[in-house]
Structures are given as structure tokens and as C-alpha cells.
Amino acid sequence: MSGRKLTSESEIYQAAIDLLSRRDYAAVELKQKLLAKVETDRQYHSEINDTEEKGLSASQQVDQVIQRLQDSGYQSDERYIEMLVRARKERGYGPQYIAQYLNQYRLDSQLIEEYIDSRDKQWNEYACRQLEKKFRQPSDDFKMRQKQQRHLYQRGFSSDQIRWALSRFDELFRE
């Protein structure tokens, strides 16, 4: 199926299963990938299959396939969000960065908020760990402090989380 365009719903379904067997995808992301593989201009296709007779467009076929995958439990936006939040957290990203990243896939904002509670004190610890990883030890130098703050802002941590992490980072090395 590498270079060939997909024409039937069963081919689209199989391509979706192939994609999902490698990693999880958001429904929007999966739809984009499948639409890229589907033959959108069917006027030149000589063989008419049963879904064309029903008048379904490529987009509608892909939507049906995704719905079938969701009903079967093969595709889940909730599972995708959970996996991505966990992975980004472990890589040192903050709640604002992760939320922004997930919003680009037009996922349910309520679901995103459920998995990213930015008021959770655990984010403070993640910010402190990121400082330890990047800078090894605190500094009294003003420019270095700004650099540390900027690093955490770019990673998506809030100003409260950054203040807490910087003060905790200092405490760890005073002990």
C-alpha cells in the first residue's frame, strides 16, 4: 500500500490499522494521514465500488472508518492524550506547552484539562527536575537566573511553578 491510492473502505480500514499498530494517533491526525492515502479524484478510476454507489466521498469514508476504529477501541483520543501527556512530562515539558501541543489536534479541551491539571503540585517538581537536569546547580548571577527562568517558560511552566522551582533548586544546594 506504499504508493498506491486506497479506493475501498476495507483498504482504508486496513491502512488505519497499520498506522495504529505502530503508535496511537489523534482522530484528526489519523484522518489527515488516511486522506493523504485515499484517492480523492475518483473520476479517473474505472472501477466503481459499492461505497461510491452510496455517494460517499473520501472524507466520509475515512470518517466512517475512524468511527468504526473508535467503536472497536483501536483509536481513542483519551488514550492518545494520556500517552502524550505522560511522554511530554517525562521529557521535561510543562502544562502550558503540552496543552498547546494537544490543542493543535483539535482535541476535546475538557479532556485535555482532565489530564493536565496545571494546579497540581507535581508540576513544580517537574520544573525543579528540569532545572537540575539543564543547569546542574543554582547561580546568583542575574543573567544566569534569567536564563533559567526563560528555559522553564519555553518549556511551558507557569510563573508560579518557575518561582517555586527556582527557590527549591536553591534550597537543594544549600543543604
Counting helices, strands and paired strands, the structural category is mainly alpha
Strand content: under 5%
The poorly predicted ranges are: 41-53
Q: Please tell me the total number of domains.
A: 3
Number of strands: 0
Distance between the termini: 61 Å
- Which value, in Å, is the CA radius of gyration? 23 Å
Largest sheet: none
Q: In which range does the helix fraction lie?
A: 55-70%
Mean pLDDT across the residues is 86
Q: What is the count of DSSP helices, taking H or I runs of 4+ residues?
A: 10
Elements, N to C (H/E): HHHHHHHHHH
Shape, per Cα inertia axes: elongated
Can you walk through the features of this model?
This protein is mostly helical and 175 residues long. It has three domains: 9-72, no CATH class; 77-115; 122-174, Orthogonal Bundle (Arc Repressor Mutant, subunit A), CATH 1.10.10. Helix content is 67%, strand content 0%. The protein is built from ten helices and no strands. Helix 8 (122-135) packs across helix 10 (159-174) and helix 9 crosses helix 10. Residues 41-53 have low confidence and may be disordered.
